Amino acid sequence: MNTFILIENGKPVGTTTFENLEGYKVLPAPEGWDGNLERLKYENGQLTLIPEEEYIELKRQKLLKERIEQLNQATDDYFYAEAAERGDYKNMGEIVYDAQQGDEDAKFLLKLYDAIWEKEEELEEQLTNMSLSELEQLNIQELTTSTYDQVKENLLNGGE
After folding, report:
1. 101 forms bridges with which residues in the sheet?
2. How far is 160 from 156, CA to CA, in rounded Å?
3. How much of the chain, in percent, has pLDDT values that exceed 90?
4. Distance in angstroms (rounded) separating the CA atoms of residues 153 and 160
5. pLDDT tens-place string over residues 65-118
6. Which residues pair with 47 in a beta bridge?
7. CA distances from 144 to 78, 81, 128, 160 (A)
8. 157: burial class by Cβ within 10 Å (0-12, 13-18, 19+)?
9. Beta 25-28 vs 11-16: how paired, if at all?
10. How confident is the model over 4-27, as pLDDT tens digits?
11. pTM score, whole prediction
């Protein structure tokens, strides 16, 4: 039984054993295809396998995007957990107001905010230079917690 690829809106979206299926362009699977739709490229009416190097880079870019989103979320989570601990703060407006009123915890949180977002930019830059295997092995939660704990410790000890 032959496998055919369903093309919808210029992208491979599934497989079938039927040569025709209403609503889809149906093309035979390329020779040597491993069953992974992400390995296929549809251009100019042709369905081809993506070369290995290109496929690895596509996977790296997709994972990089996921890791950066995880990094952004972990940074927010870290900061707001610290803000909740130091004054049950829920948003920056409260922190800024209290800092202007002289509250030491709020002042510290403003420094921490600037310091961890600066560190986040550095981490994001490091991520962009990582290989696929490095990104696959990376635990964002561990990375951010240890890094931001060090940033916080530096601030508490009078550093910047």
Report:
1. none
2. 9
3. 96
4. 10
5. 999 999 999 999 999 999 999 999 999 999 999 999 999 999 999 999 999 999
6. 42
7. 8, 13, 16, 18
8. exposed
9. unpaired
10. 999 999 999 999 999 999 999 999
11. 0.82
